[in-house]
Write a structure and sequence with these properties.
Nucleoside Triphosphate Pyrophosphohydrolase; alpha+beta; 8-stranded mixed β-sheet
Length: 147
């Protein structure tokens, strides 16, 4: 079974009520892998670009679109997820919902200065270990440390 099949099989067993897709934006600098993190609009904490599936796009395609909208990244996205994690998404009316995020690797080809959410978020490149220290979600930390 492929890694994608294992992830989907695991999700089907517990069927998350809410599913998002995330883009793990990667680049190489001086031979070392770097990961792009962005700040969330609400709390300012470090996250990866992520969002809801989109009608007419594959899950990987939706992750690529989120990378563009939230971080100004263009690149080649892997067709299968490299992992998943969950988090509790706060609701405007109070409370929270449990969300499962399928994570897709995206090889960065360009970084734009003008993009839909420019000015709403900070973005910064980190080593995988530094990125893992800055994110809150244990499952995302594990994905970053596995790079």
């Amino acid at each position: 079974m492929s890694a994608f099949g294992e992830i989907v099989s695991g999700l089907l067993g517990r069927r998350p009520a809410y599913l998002q897709v995330g883009a793990l934006c990667l680049r190489k600098r001086d031979g070392a892998v770097q990961v792009l993190l962005i700040s969330s609009r609400g709390t300012g904490r470090w996250i990866i670009p992520k969002g809801w599936p989109m009608r007419g796009r594959s899950l990987a395609g939706a992750a690529r679109q989120e990378a563009w909208e939230e971080a100004g990244i263009k690149g080649k996205v892997a067709p299968d997820p490299c992992g998943s994690y969950h988090y509790d998404k706060g609701l405007d009316q109070g409370g929270a919902i449990r969300v499962e995020v399928l994570v897709y690797r995206l090889k960065t080809e360009s970084l734009a200065e003008a993009y839909p959410e420019a000015g709403q978020r900070r973005r910064k490149w980190f080593s995988p270990a530094e990125a893992a220290e800055r994110v809150d979600e244990p499952g995302l930390k594990a994905i970053l440390l596995g790079l």
